[in-house]
Amino acid sequence: MLRRWWANDLPLHIMVWVGLVFVLIFAYGPMVGLVIAFQKFVPTKGLFGSDWVGLDNFHYILSLPDTRQVIYNTVFISIMKLAAGLVAPLLTALLLNEIRLKAFKRTVQTIVYLPHFLSWVILSGILLDVLSPNFGLLNDFIAWLGFDRVFFLGNDHWFPFVLVGTDVWKEFGFGTIVYLAALTGINPALYEAAVIDGAGRWKQTINVTLPGIVPIVVLLMTLSLGNILNAGFDQVFNLYSPSVYSSGDILDTYVYRLGLVNFDFGVATAVGLFKSAVSLVLISGSYMMAYRFANYRIF
Amino acid sequence: MHRKRMTAITAAGVLALSVALTACGSNNGENENAPAANADKNKAQNTTGNSGSANTPAAVADGPLVKYDPPIEVSTVRKFNSGLKFLPGESWDNNIYTNELKSDLGIQMKNDWIVDDQQYPKKLNVSMVAGDLPDIFEVNLQQLQLLIEADQIADLTDVFDKYATDLSKKAIENGDGIARKAASVNGRLMAIPNGGGGRDDAQFIYVRADWLKKLNLQPPKTMDDVINIAKAFANDDPDGNGKKDTFGLSLDYNLFNGWSGLDGFFNGYHAYPFNPGGPNSTGLNLVFMDKGGQLDYADIQPEVKTALGKLQDLFKAGAINPEFGVDSGEKSAALATAGKVGMTYGAFWVPTWPINEMIAKDPKVDWEIYPLVSADDQPVKALSNNIVPASFTVVSKKSKHPEAAVKILNFYMEKNYGESRDEKYHSQKNGDETIGVFGLSPVSGGFSETNQDDYYSVQEALTAKDPSKLNPTAKAYYDSVTSYRAGDVKGWPMEKLFGGDNTSTYGILGQYKKNNAFMTNAFLGAPTETMVRNGPALRDLEVKTFTKIIMGEQPLDSFDQFVADWKKQGGDQIIQEVNDWYKEHK
């Protein structure tokens, strides 16, 4: 018995220990730094020498006139992103799945996946040009159709939608591939059975395909709920400007301008902690719901 | 990713400038302002008559440049910018400064770490947390404050008085002693200021003279002229392509800057706001004016409202790019160099970036430079804040030889400005390439009037047609100017900096100086507590309001609401703190 454990299980345990140590050092170790959220952090005094201020940093953030708007923007933008980011790849995957021509399917798959590899730094430059009201391609087209030119990146009303649209455009190829992979996992016998029962394409999709990938949809949604307060720093930071602060500013960019540029680490940490706490609640909640309604579980 | 846009304009300006100004190719990326970078890193011409160390009485046994025996070790930390290059075989640990500091002064430099200039402040903060400070290091104003509060740096007053050479003492008294004041607390010198005392951030009007000519317009004499020219440039098709695709005044989301800034425009209406926008701005560089002994915030004065109204008119008339609110500095520069904009306000370095790019491509393009103009019969004053240094060299309290920093400064000043000055301490040739070595010195100093003095000596040499008396740096300017006049378009930027009397930036800056036509921030202290806390949020409020007023999305009268909000959200407290400082330091 022991010998078998020695031969089979010990190597596995050793492998786990290595990972565990890394997690402890690099994921749990830095959490000590969270005490900064409750301090007036002064670099010269250090982590444990700085004065404790209790919840002052949190009060300070809540006292700022724009905070409520910024939290609203963050939640609004990320819920829209979450919804659009769930529907777009799912539809694409379902449509692509119906295509029999393999070469075409692969080509489309690759093309929609490509933007995923571009950074927002590059994309922001391109988008600024494409969306420009005076010289932009898109606006030239809109004007040609006879509509008024739209100042997409400088207009409070449009800006959040531009964020969602460009984010979906950049990332939906990635989700599509995940769903396509899930679709190949559905047992073909189910389709055959459906055909024998007289189901057409539409009925097959509703009754076989969709139920088949529900677990993966639930999984992706559960995971993204944990990120609900991350509306995408890279993207917003590269695309926004003072004229759209009122609708486009999210927690991360707000704190970056308020705290990090001026070395106000306490405030920045407080917001990070706040976001983590909210995310923990959301992801726990959604996991429990997923367990109850979709019988989805990890452990 | 936050490295990306950081000081985009100024960095680009610095870069272009350092390339253009031959010898000064490295080590100035850390400066917030191009002028400061330039001013303190060039050589001064007006230092003849300084006796260096020779006449200092204390120099007998333990003097300013006496060698340590046995040698001592001094630790430091360094930062570099992307333009850094070494001579073959040289490095941070083996170069003209480390070697000669050791052989001449008995000081062995030890670099604890070296990082690029973007990471330097953060890395240094980490060192502060760890309490692991080197003997000598460079800090910004905020870090200086922190270190003073934490009592971690040495009081240099006595060692400086005892060891500094006349040349070093003169350098630190730059700008009527403002540099020294900025580095002092209660009269005690806590750091060696790097630069400061200059006026190189004052603005000028840059106009496409070929467009003026085409539309039969005269150069601007009043603010009304500026507005009329801007409108004409937008509406009268100055580029003659039959399309309404040009703008009169260059502007971008920073609002205030050395390129496409509004500083000079506001100055024309006797308003002196300064609070750059952009996602990376700090909101800590506020300007205060002395109004009958009381300090008041420059950006909330009624004159600002007047000027904003004029800008709103210009925007409505189509004279400003409707997209300026989302355009970065690079973007507004690209628009101008594409030939779509005919006028901008800017600092002295604008001819070296970005408009120099146009001259080389199209010889018909002609940018001329004009002094700021006034809206009424009151003379115009240019806002200038460069007199306050942006960075400092400090000495750790634990250092055994605090005087070593002063001695290194003496060495640097003597070799670059003193009687034994030698170009090899400033820059050296490696084939065709000129490599700046001055930045390798662990401590450096300089004079704010360096460029201005070079301008005067270039002028003299041009009149006499005799460059023999010029220092090596000024000689390079002279060569560029004469080559431009002989037909080489590459010399254009130097012609516009050092060439004509009324047509070059330093010519006009000299006139500003003669008339003392400057408005300076009356508050010269470090950012106050409320400024640090509320400054960024207040900056947002201001930039949003100004942008929307200019774009006509908010009525001009919303300025009054902004003033009330600004005061309520911490502004009154800031004004109070600033006045407390003022009473103490008057």
TrEMBL record, chain A:
What domain of life does the native source organism fall in?
Bacteria
Location comes to: Cell membrane
Report TM segments: 12-38, 70-96, 108-128, 172-196, 208-229, 265-290
| GO CC term (a single one) | plasma membrane
Is the keyword Kinase in the record?
no
Annotated Pfam families: BPD_transp_1 (PF00528)
Swiss-Prot/TrEMBL keywords? Cell membrane, Membrane, Transmembrane, Transmembrane helix, Transport
What does the similarity note say? Belongs to the binding-protein-dependent transport system permease family.
* PANTHER family xref list: BLL4140 PROTEIN
The name of this protein is Sugar ABC transporter permease
Q: Which organism's genome codes for this protein?
A: Paenibacillus rhizovicinus
Q: What is the lineage of its organism?
A: Bacteria, Bacillati, Bacillota, Bacilli, Bacillales
Automatic annotation (TrEMBL), chain B:
Q: Which residues form the signal peptide?
A: 1-25
**InterPro entries reported in the protein's UniProt record:** Bact_solute-bd_prot1 (IPR050490)
Q: State where composition is biased (Polar residues).
A: 47-56
Keywords from the named record: Signal
Q: Which SUPFAM superfamilies does this UniProt record tie to the protein?
A: Periplasmic binding protein-like II
- Report the CDD domains cross-referenced here: PBP2_AlgQ_like_1
Instruction: Show the segment(s) annotated as Disordered.
Output: 32-62
Q: Which family does it belong to?
A: Belongs to the bacterial solute-binding protein 1 family.
What this protein is called in its record is Extracellular solute-binding protein
Q: Which organism is it from?
A: Paenibacillus rhizovicinus
